[in-house]
Structures are given as C-alpha cells and as structure tokens.
Input
Amino acid sequence: MQTRKVTAISCANIAFIKYWGNHDAKLRMPLNDSLSMNLDALTTETTVEFDDALENDEIVIGGEPADEKTTARVVEHLNRIRQEAKLNAKARVHSRNNFPSAAGLASSASAFAALTLAATRAAGLELGERQLSILARQGSGSAARSIPAGFVEWLAATNVTSTSEQSYARQLMPPDAWELCDVIAIVSSDAKKIPSAEGHAVAHTSPFLGERISRLPIRYHRVRRELLAKNLQGMGPDIETEAIELHMIAMTSRPPIFYWAPGTVRVMDAVREWRREGLEAYYTLDAGPNVHIIVEAKNADEIAKRVRELDAVQKVFVSAPGGGATLSENHLF
Ligand code: PMV
Output
C-alpha cells in the first residue's frame, strides 16, 4: 500500500522567553513556559509518503541522504506517528530549507513542525493544532511553537500531575497583529554547533538554574503583557536578559557549553550603541553565535544596513512574523 503524498511548510521561530532544560527529557516537557515569534523568512518544506514497498525509512535533506544521527531522530518521530496511526509502512521523507544550511541557523523547529504535519496527514491522521503541537514538541521542543501562526506561547505544564497532553503551544497574536522584524546577523556559519539537546540535558548542572527558574514567572508575564500591548521598549530589556541568562546557564553547566563567538559580542555592543543613539532595537540569541535583532518594521532597513557594515557580520537575513504550519501542493518528489 502506498499512502497519499503530503507536503507541509513551516517557519522557524525566535524565542523572547527561552526554553532551556526539560523536566521530562524523554517527552521533551520543558522546565518553563516560553514565548516566540515565527519567522517567515526561514522555512522548511517537507514531503512525506508511506510505502509498504520500502524496507527502511528514506530521509533526504537538501537533496542528500540525511546523516545517521538526523536519520535516527526522524525515524523515532515517524515511529510515534506510525504508532498513533496504527501503520507499519516505512516512509519516504524529503525536506529542504529555504535558507542555506551552512548559515548556522537552527532548523529543528521548522523541520519537526513540517514533518509532523506532513507525516500525520500522509498517515491518514487529521490532528488539530493542539495535537500537532504536542506531537511536534516530542521531535524538538521548540517545534511545538512553529505549529501555530504568528506570536506564540508554549505552556510547560510542570505540576507533578501534568501530562504530555497539557504541554502545547497556542497563538497569542496573529502574524499581522504587529509589524515586528527579526534582523539576523550571521557572525559564524560553523556547522559543528553543539546540539541544543546536549544543552537541555546538562542545564540542571548549572548552579544558577534554580535562580533562573524562580525568576522566570514574573519575567514571562511582563514580556507577555508588553508583547500583547505591542510595546517593544517594554519587552526589550527582558528579552536581552533572557538571552544572556540562557547562555550563562550553558556556560556554567558541566561540561560548559560556549555558543558565543567574538562577533556575537561585537553585534550586541553595536545594538546597545544604536539604542543610545535613539534607534530602538534589542538583541536575542538561540543556541548559537548568531545575533537576532528585534526591531519594528519601520527601523528594519536601517538596522539591516548598519549590521551589514559590521566587520564581524558575514550575512544578514530579515524576517517578518510568519504563519503556522500549512499544507502545500508543491511536492518535493
Ligand atoms: O527545540 P530545541 O531543542 O532546538 O531548543 C531550542 C533552544 C533555544 O533555541 C535556545 C531556545 C528556544 O526557546 O527556542
């Protein structure tokens, strides 16, 4: 039996309140609630078809067979979906990003969101947004936030009685609610980056994790309130603190993880300088050295121009708020 061929497209996202560490690593249930914006400039497209004639899952990324580690993670996710759909057939999965994979930009959120939508549909399941988000979360935590459109919050569900069903992402505001932009400064495209999974696994070894977690609820509600009020100045200082704090946890874990490159600090300094000159912009980071500069659309061109002029910067991407995971007729095979 050969199932329907299904293609899905999904955006990456940048978090304003970050996910770092799990309280249930196997289910990827996070230690804290997080907030993010989908990025319309960074997308993954994935086509999936289940076929009884296949002996193994066939995973192709950017036209090349996926490496062993990636294949294992995708197969594990396909197994979750096969189990839910009561299906045995192996799958053909072809995926591509619209941004160069060597750009040093994380793609696991867009990848697992697109895979979840395409593979569940190809397997004959018709899951709603919440169920898709719960499933995508188990492939890569932040993928839960790439399922809904626009500005999104992901509920951690950390009570002792909490179940996997309670940790999902939902929309806070649609993408067109606020013309916010992410100007992404690529300072290093080093492909050998430390996977975030390794960082989550050792987060609890940082002596500062408890302090972070105890301070987060107040910060979370303040950023959420300012986001809903569309007040960049109101949320900016907190999103910078948040980025520094995540990296401080990583740097003080055992073993320590250093994601920063010299260019990371240069761009952060420049953003602070531009702010002193009256240009409203705030930086954040994901699990890598590249700097995401959050600005209102009216200032995006000026910031992008200044970022391009910095010696430390190799490439710049500018992204508006993106949509949620959607189906497409444009199959990759
Ligand atoms: O979903 P993961 O395991 O790639 O973790 C994402 C980690 C950060 O990007 C650093 C933070 C976040 O909330 O997106």
Summary: The chain has two domains: 5-174+322-328, 177-319. The domain at 177-319 is CATH 3.30.70.890 (Alpha-Beta Plaits). The pocket of PMV is lined by residues 15, 18-19, 34, 106, 108-109, 140-142, 196-197, 200, 246, 286-287 (CB under 6 Å). Residues 209-228 form the longest helix (20 residues).
